């Protein structure tokens, strides 16, 4: 499912426009599994699946498979319906240099939210 | 194409002294009867109350008034604002502003209705000024909210102020239409630099009233609380805990709604608000 992120994001012209200044690589952790997502000018340029040896990333988003599953469900219940809701209830941790994440928060909410309805 | 119409809402500028300084505040009102003074959320403005100000059922019996706090919407900051290092709203200043506006408008026993920071200050008003207000309605109202993200991100030159809207976007519930969702977020995008963050100083630091909720006398000033189910800032549990601490307070949880009921889902919110106002009106007649 995570692999569909590229087509979901890159196929959404408005979302790509929103992220047109984003150049970063972030780690997406879903329970025991992890992906490195590289973004260039708002487009997903590469998604690599772990496990990794000495991975490099700017920031990491880590949550359990259950929490992401609820977040990506078609109608997430209260507390699972937004990245900040997950953060509020300590289900999602954001680590590293958060500057690109916070400076482009609408974009990253859109990127992670684009998988909604697939879980 | 539909014909152009004026809403019943009239906006004016009020000159008054607040906190020892001359101020110019933007005030909107509509309707006649019992004064209903509406207080917007942190970093936003009185446009949030557009539906309440346009509801014929409410305007029949209530004079609905909504004003922009200083530094918000069309209200200016006081002169000399550029010399202040950082804007910060405190409990005392906030209560003084609301009472100052009520006094300047000559409001007799107004009902104070506020959301979020407004929902918190109405608890302070019920506690400190129980005879000045006829009743209070707290929307998304709780005794305290602990910070759950680093608020420095809300005001720094290398992050656009649009981040305030992005931070709060998830606080809107699934019942919201696209139009009302993005209207609500637009108000946040228009906030001045550092103002949302400065309001949150009251919300998350200075305005903690948990320890004093029991002292509120609802015989003198009735307390009604309405909270949206999807709010993770002031959660339904926070509101129910506050209601349990205030003897005689009423609380209703609104399904499908989030942190900005009057703005994100105006019609849904009005179905919850009208019975509360009707009850206030009935009790006032006695």
UniProtKB/TrEMBL annotation, chain A:
This is SCP-2 sterol transfer family protein. It comes from Enterovirga rhinocerotis.
Automatic annotation (TrEMBL), chain B:
InterPro entries: AB_hydrolase_1, AB_hydrolase_fold, AB_hydrolase_sf. It holds the Pfam family Abhydrolase_1. Residues 35-146 form the AB hydrolase-1 domain. This is Pimeloyl-ACP methyl ester carboxylesterase. It comes from Enterovirga rhinocerotis. The lineage of its organism: Bacteria, Pseudomonadati, Pseudomonadota, Alphaproteobacteria, Hyphomicrobiales.
């Amino acid at each position: 499912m995570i692999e569909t992120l590229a087509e979901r994001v890159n196929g959404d012209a408005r979302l790509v426009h929103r992220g047109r200044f984003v150049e970063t690589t972030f780690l997406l952790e879903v329970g025991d599994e992890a992906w490195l997502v590289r973004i260039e000018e708002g487009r997903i340029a590469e998604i690599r699946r772990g496990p990794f040896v000495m991975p490099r990333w700017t920031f990491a988003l880590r949550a359990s498979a259950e929490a992401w599953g609820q977040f990506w469900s078609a109608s997430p219940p209260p507390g699972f319906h937004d990245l900040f809701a997950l953060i509020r209830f300590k289900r999602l941790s954001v680590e590293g240099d958060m500057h690109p994440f916070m400076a482009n928060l609408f974009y990253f909410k859109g990127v992670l939210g684009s998988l909604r309805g697939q879980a | 194409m539909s014909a152009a119409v004026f809403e019943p809402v009239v906006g004016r500028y009020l000159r008054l002294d607040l906190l020892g300084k001359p101020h110019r505040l933007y005030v909107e009102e509509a309707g006649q009867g019992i004064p209903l003074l509406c207080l917007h959320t942190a970093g936003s403005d009185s446009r949030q109350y557009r539906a309440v100000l346009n509801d014929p059922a409410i305007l029949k019996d209530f004079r609905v008034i909504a004003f922009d706090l200083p530094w918000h919407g069309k209200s200016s900051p006081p002169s000399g604002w550029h010399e202040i290092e950082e804007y910060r709203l405190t409990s005392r200043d906030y209560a003084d502003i609301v009472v100052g506006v009520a006094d300047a408008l000559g409001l007799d026993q107004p009902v104070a209705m506020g959301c979020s920071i407004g929902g918190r200050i109405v608890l302070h008003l019920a506690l400190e000024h129980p005879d000045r207000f006829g009743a209070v309605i707290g929307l998304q109202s709780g005794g305290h909210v602990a910070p759950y993200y680093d608020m420095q991100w809300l005001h720094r030159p290398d992050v656009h102020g649009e981040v305030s809207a992005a931070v709060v976007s998830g606080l809107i519930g699934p019942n919201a239409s696209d139009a009302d969702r993005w209207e609500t977020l637009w108000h946040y995008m228009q906030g001045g630099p550092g103002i949302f963050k400065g309001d949150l100083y009251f919300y998350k630091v200075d305005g903690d009233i948990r320890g004093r909720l029991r002292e509120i006398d609802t015989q003198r000033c009735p307390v009604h609380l309405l909270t949206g189910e999807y709010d993770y800032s002031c959660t339904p549990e926070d509101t129910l805990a506050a209601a349990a601490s205030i003897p005689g307070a009423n609380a209703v949880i609104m399904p499908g709604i989030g942190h900005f009921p009057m703005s994100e889902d105006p019609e849904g919110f009005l179905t919850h608000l009208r019975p509360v106002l009707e009850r206030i009106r009935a009790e006032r007649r006695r």
